Automatic annotation (TrEMBL):
SUPFAM superfamilies: LuxS/MPP-like metallohydrolase (SSF63411). InterPro entries: Metalloenz_LuxS/M16, MPP/UQCRC_Complex, Pept_M16_N, Peptidase_M16_C. Keywords: Acetylation, Electron transport, Membrane, Mitochondrion, Mitochondrion inner membrane, Phosphoprotein, Respiratory chain, Transit peptide, Transport. The gene is Uqcrc1. This is Cytochrome b-c1 complex subunit 1, mitochondrial. It is a peripheral membrane protein.
Amino acid sequence: AALLTLTRKRGAASYAQTLQNIPETQVTTLENGLRVASEESNQPTCTVGLWIEAGSRYEDKRTNGSGFFVEHMAFKGTKKRLGSAFEKEVESLGAHLNGYTSREQTAFYIKALSKDMPKVVELLSDLVQNCALEDSQIEKERGIILQELKEMDSNLTDVTFDYLHATAYQGTALAQTVEGTTENIKRLTRADLATYVDTHFKAPRMVLAAAGGISHRELVDAAKQHFTGAPFSYKGDSVPPLAHCRFTGSEIRARDDGLPLAHIALAVEGPGWADPDNVVLNVANAIIGRYDRTFGGGKNQSSRLAALSVEHNLCHSFEPFNTSYSDTGLFGFHFVSDPLSIDDMMFCAQGEWMRLCTSTTESEVTRAKNYLRNAMVAQLDGTTRVCETIGSNLLHYGRRIPLEEWDARISAVDASMVRDVCSKYIYDKCPAIAAVGPIEQLLDYNRIRSSMYWIRL
């Protein structure tokens, strides 16, 4: 017993020490508005990246897909490094270059040896400041992107979530896909892409983030040296504030009986990034849990919905989600099931939502909080994940939120808070629904809406 107690104490102390020993995130704002943020460690490598407040939400119907197109073009040469010279120079460092575009942000980052940090900063500045956008490369990438769009249509999970955004935020910028439409990709010109870069790639909209064996002072010096060109000397912000994307309770059904499985997503409107309710909703999602037929545990899993799924063969997989944007979000669940199991799975999943609102227990909350703590500490695994956390945090919250603060927020959640917050967002609310595949058995929208509350005496 004494040995077990000692082991438990050592584990608890190790977790607490992990949170306390995380290096401080240093942030410096340059005169042009560029924020430079870094976390120093003893790693022999570093990850340096640019996180930019730009994405498909900043596009209109005609230009939707511009950001995704620019991301492709960014790696295809600059005015200083034509053709494949940019990629070759990255490879000569033994470095790894990557990037992505989402609805509200764009990122470019390079993982390299710590000693090459100044060179990496220069490469990133060249990438966003001097993107060549050669006509021949544009036509080549146009064909590649069109092929990607065809391949994306076969990923029914992504298709379902695009439909979910389209119905939940219909008529607004968030309804658009990140990749854009096939028609747009075919007609976007060099002038469209150049306008997108000139409009959005401004210093006040950027965060230069770094993690690993680097010095913050040297990072700032490199940023001052290289981020001084035309886009970075601009101190204002020509992009108007984002219009609020109003949530609409509605549905999209894309029935195709030739597909073997049905993909269903159901969501209510969730809070934006900075809302403290997000922590409670993440605890609620951890209570629901996630399931896939490849998981072990069977019906002995701690997730009640997972145990029901195994016992009654309800689905192939399910996963809750809490997708946040600057001023709104989607809180819901997605499942994949056989055509004849849709009704039963939807009934059980909505029943779990109602249980969260009315009868969440403290033991469930304790388990869920431990799950979130584990996921939180996993963010420390590697310089790339740390760098992405820094960049995203500064865009979303204006600061890097320490893990100790996240841990305190998680610890403050109790069963009463979960019931109250879930009732606020779920109970008697009109959901958005997206369904793809053999979905004949999916009940009428009004029937699903009627399961968003319980008649209580």
